[in-house]
Amino acid sequence: MDYNTKREKLIMPEYGRGIQQMVEHCKTIADKEERMRCAKTIIDTMANMAEQTADREDFQKKLWNHLAAMAQYNLDIDYPVEIERMDDKEARPEALHYPQQRIRQRNYGAIVEKFTNHLATMEADQQRDDLTIMVANHMKRDLSNWSTDSMSDEKVADDMALYTDGKIQLDLDRFQLVSDGELLSSRVSTSVKKKKNKK
């Protein structure tokens, strides 16, 4: 069971678990060029989350350093800036002010749009399959947080096709998404923990 309480603590909670999962995925990519493309996509997403600081001189350097920290300095890419190891306090980014950008469906958010756009540009191979299942599970978790009545695998498959202009057709016979039971159990566990903390 994938309970929130059993998940590893995020290195940089401000960027969210979705970004951390993409960083972990990036580390598994065998081809260095593809790994670098994935890293740049992650950087673009991180930059979009903090658009108001994009004109700062050290902005890109800070993003690449945050990426390195989230990867625990174990991501083999050619960084375009000098990477400086940071302790836990230094690794925390400044508070983010989220831009009010238009997104297709509020229940998914901008991160899902960013990565489905990236998926649509990838060649059909195992790397795309791995990223597809990761994004699809993220979408289903988003749906479960929005409304348990709409978190069906079929809904995720339909939305995945919509977001990628039909380029990604999620074969539910081939790809197994996180089960409804796991998502509901995770929500109950989180709810119980919150109640205990209030006492």
Describe what is shown at a glance.
The protein has 199 residues and is mainly alpha-helical. The protein contains eight helices and no strands. The longest helix has 21 residues, at 126-146.
How does this structure look, described?
The structure is a single chain. The protein is 54% helix and 0% strand. It folds into two domains: 11-98, no CATH class; 102-191, no CATH class. With 199 residues, it is an all-alpha fold. The longest helix is centred in the C-terminal third of the chain and has 21 residues, at 126-146. It contains eight helices and no strands. It has helices at residues 16-28, 32-48, 59-70, 88-91, 110-119, 126-146, 153-163, 180-198. The model is unreliable at 1-6 and 188-195 (pLDDT under 50).
Write the layout of secondary structure elements.
Elements: H1 16-28, H2 32-48, H3 59-70, H4 88-91, H5 110-119, H6 126-146, H7 153-163, H8 180-198
Helix pairs in contact: 1-2, 1-6, 2-3, 5-6, 6-7
Mean pLDDT: 78
Helix content: 40-55%
Mind summarizing the main beta sheet? none
Alpha carbon gyration radius: 17 Å
Name the features.
199 residues; mainly alpha; 8 helices; globular; disordered N terminus
